[in-house]
Write a structure and sequence with these properties.
The chain is mostly helical. It is about 75% helix and about 0% strand. It contains 17 helices and no strands. Helix 6 packs across helix 10 and helix 6 runs antiparallel to helix 13. The two termini are about 45 Å apart.
């Protein structure tokens, strides 16, 4: 009894060695290398043009101002961009998950007919693709150019994400599926009632991948969309930044720059506005992220 009482937890009995201190130092330096530029971006977005000109490496501005954010939200176009990006996520994310999950499950089954040929065709698209012109012609033939559906369909499927999910499904015991089949369950019932409840890590990972892709989508929107009220957030921010940079370059004095716009401050404010929502989304899926990527990347 006394031996058990004197026994310390393992993490308390181990002493820090020189290697442990060295690793802690290296990780702390790397963390600062990430956090300092990140903090600098936020502080510049709240700084005045004069203060930024005096000290570009700004850690804490003496005079806080919301002028950059006011200029960014002035014409209301950024709110329209948020709304269009939200529609991309609400429609595109479930569609992408459905397409990826159903195909990954089918190709993960050993008795699926034509499995090798279909997988080869999917893998082929990762190496070769037709390019933007054939894709535009396909969207035009479907009468989807000028609509958000063209952007959604263009990014609705990723061969890389499908392979990750397929390998994860391979790691699940086949006996679970066989037991469900003996109970009379069909493939769709097995997928939704047996496989998906066990696949939370890979679903969280793929959801994060697709969510970030839709949030940062701008190239497809630039190709397929023409109306300003249809542009997603990234395209709106690009237009605002280009316009502010043009106004600043055409200004003839520092005072004119201050009156027209604080170009660098608007850029930093745009970065903050863009990254904050996705940063709030990431921690919700972080605990599943590492496990999902690790298991999905290993072929079993």
């Amino acid at each position: 009894m006394s031996t058990i009482a004197r026994k310390k937890p393992k993490f308390l009995s181990n002493k820090m060695t020189f290697i442990d201190y060295f690793i802690l130092f290296v990780l702390s330096v790397m963390a600062l290398l990430i956090l300092i530029p990140f903090w600098n971006v936020i502080m510049i977005s709240f700084a005045t043009p004069k203060e930024y000109a005096e000290n570009p490496l700004l850690m804490f501005p003496k005079e806080f101002t919301f002028d950059s954010y006011t200029a960014l939200f002035a014409d209301g176009s950024i709110l329209t961009g948020y709304w269009n990006t939200t529609k991309l996520l609400v429609i595109g994310l479930p569609l992408s998950l459905f397409l990826t999950t159903s195909m990954a499950y089918g190709l993960s089954r050993n008795k699926f007919p034509g499995k090798k040929l279909i997988f080869f065709l999917v893998l082929f698209t990762m190496i070769f693709n037709g390019g933007i012109v054939p894709l535009y012609l396909v969207m035009k033939s479907l009468h989807l150019t000028g609509t958000l559906m063209s952007v959604i369909l263009a990014g609705s499927f990723s061969a890389f994400n499908m392979i990750l999910m397929m390998n994860y499904f391979h790691s699940l015991p086949e006996s679970l599926m066989e037991s469900a089949r003996l109970d009379g369950a069909g493939e769709w019932r097995i997928l939704f009632s047996v496989v998906l409840p066990l696949a939370a890590p890979i679903i969280a990972t793929i959801t994060l991948f697709y969510g970030v892709a839709y949030w940062n989508s701008w190239y497809d929107a630039m190709i397929f969309l023409r109306r300003q009220d249809q542009l997603p957030l990234q395209n709106v921010l690009r237009a605002i930044i280009v316009e502010s940079s043009t106004n600043a370059s055409n200004a003839s004095s520092v005072e004119a720059v201050g009156k027209n716009s604080f170009s660098t401050g608007m850029k930093m404010a745009a970065v903050v506005v863009t990254m904050v929502p996705i940063m709030c989304f990431f921690p919700l899926l972080q605990k599943h992220f590492a496990k999902g990527v690790l298991t999905g990347a290993i072929k079993t």
